[in-house]
Amino acid sequence: AQAADPNAPATDVAETIAAAAPDATPVLDSTRSAEAFAAGSGTSTVAVPLDAADPVTITSTDPSAPDLAVTLPNLGGTDDARQAEDGTLVYTSDDDASLAVQPLADGSTRFLSVLESKNAPERYDYTFDGLALELQDDGSVVVLDVATPVGFIPAPWATDADGTDVPTRYEVDGSTLTQVVPHAPDNYTYPITADPRYKPSWWNYTILLNRAETRDAKDGLLVGQTASAIAALAGGPAAVAIAAAISVYSTAISIYYDRGKCVKFVWYPTAFLSSIPMPVPQPYGGSKAGGYCR
Fold first, then answer.
1. What is the pTM of this model?
2. 58 has which bridge partners?
3. To 10 degrees, what angle do helices 238-248 and 250-258 make?
4. pLDDT 10s digits, 20-70
5. Cα–Cα distance between 128 and 26 in angstroms, integer?
6. 206: Cβ–Cβ under 8 A, 6 or more apart, which residues?
């Protein structure tokens, strides 16, 4: 008889996430060592420990950027991390919930919880060791090193197996971010997927468009959308800044597209502002960002 695949439960969780996730940013392949899985995006290296009690670390290639350590929610009977077929790192548990970490090709890192039944917890704590968190009016969170923004977490979402939105919110207490998913009182179809996604700071940060998104930008289709619609692509307050950049740099974007390239929006170091500054579009293609330009 054929032996059971020990990574099959992780692949099942990853397939649930893929069906629920609002975008399709490629998950990076990770290399396993004795203590962790590690993946590099070109801008950072993400190390996901085998033991869920140890923090996930994100180390930037920029020596001026702080390293990040994120402690995952504490679930009962959590198994060692396993890698799904698509690269997702998954921790199954005895608490009717699984945790997952996805190092993504755009330089962001997605932390997910997959709730398997009404018995799953409704609160998931992520601790950003040594950093401060600031909850925004739109539900997103800015990550601060003292007073300097070093990261951003878009507003939370959660959805059940039928695609029904599940109420969710963030709560912040010092360096701990809690995603609250009050699912038990209602009749949802399980599993439910919930997703905090950490992005490096808008300062020294890049958002990439694939070919279809670059074509839409070239044709001005993103310009007429509302900030919230663009935020589904870019996340949070960067939406307005990207819309402005598409309008101002439309000729350059058209040239990049016609040459077979994709566009990336780059934020350069600047003083802290109350609003996100306009990014500069640049071309990219080939194998960069894990071959995302396709």
1. 0.71
2. 46, 68
3. 80
4. 976 667 899 999 999 999 999 877 899 999 999 999 999 988 777 788 999
5. 24
6. 43, 106, 107, 264, 265, 266, 267
